[in-house]
Amino acid sequence: MIELKSPEGLVVCGAGDFRSAVAGEVGGMFHFGNGTPAWLLAVAAAAAIALAIVWLGFDGSSSSPELANDYEDCVERVQAQSPPGDELNGQLAGCGARFAGRRKLEGGYTYYDFMQDRKFDIAGPNPTVDERKAIDRQYIVYLEAQRREAISAALAKQQNDLLRADVERAQAPAGSPLALVPANVPLPVPRRVAEQRERARHCAEDALLCTLSKLSSAVKDAFASSPKTRN
User: Fold this and answer.
1) Of 107, 130, 153, which marks where a domain is finished?
2) Domain of 99?
3) What is the SS3 string spanning the chain?
4) I want to staple 70 with a disulfide (CB 3.0 to 4.6 A). Which of 24, 31, 125, 174 is the partner?
């Protein structure tokens, strides 16, 4: 049975009568003092209950992490529920995935970019599209600075290696003096051998002159070896 109030007092009706009233089949059967039909009140009550459920959260509690406004709020809601260890770690990781920003003591939020090892101020718990574009531009500047530093470090190392090599050569002990020996020095030739080589060269140039020279030498040798000459 369903009890509804009307201007005449309390009215009791069955479920079938209530459904008929809600569907509009019994028009004007149930009214309130201000003329509002009963079915409209039923719809309003159902909507209020639905809004209350949404307001309290999906799990029926206002402390649900799904209703958190930022990372710190999410962590507080998770810790308030005191879940087991593994579930706690998983829910805290979920808070970090949902909210990239972290609260600042003076207000606002900060975003940490691990690629640049740098923090950026942002307006809300997550960077906006424009804020992400600004962070990306700063990352390009960061990469260019890293490239220049690497080139400077390589040049400095090369110069240090050259200076170290010069110092080591200057500090090396002096060795024994080197003997300077001229190369291709001609050996002395005996006089007789030299004369024979000279005659051979002339014979090659003039065969007749060589024959006369040999004949003259033979005659001189013959007179020098005769007994008369020795006396």
Assistant:
1) 130
2) 65-130
3) CEEEEECCEEEEECHHHHHHHHCCCCCCCCECCCCCEHHHHHHHHHHHHHHHHHHHCCCCCCCCHHHCCCHHHHHHHHHHHCCCHHHHHHHHHHHHHHCCCEECCCCCEEEEECCCCEEEEECCCCCCHHHHHHHHHHHHHHHHHHHHHHHHHHHHHHHHHHHHHHHHHHHCCCCCCCCCCCCCCCCCCCHHHHHHHHHHHHHHHCHHHHHHHHHHHHHHHHHHHCHHHHC
4) 125
On whether residue 161 sits in a domain, the answer given is no
Neighbouring residues of 161: CB distance < 8 A, sequence distance ≥ 6: none
Total tally of structural domains belonging to the chain: 3
| Whether residues 7 and 47 fall in one domain | yes
Calculate the alpha carbon distances from 27 to 20, 23, 24, 143 in Å. Answer: 9, 9, 5, 76
pLDDT digits (tens, 9 = 90+) for 110-150: 999 999 999 999 999 999 999 999 999 999 999 999 999 99
| Identity of the residue numbered 97 | A
Q: What is the pLDDT of residues 36-93, one digit of tens each?
A: 566 666 777 777 776 666 555 544 456 788 889 999 999 999 999 888 888 999 999 9
Assigned domain for 175 exists = no
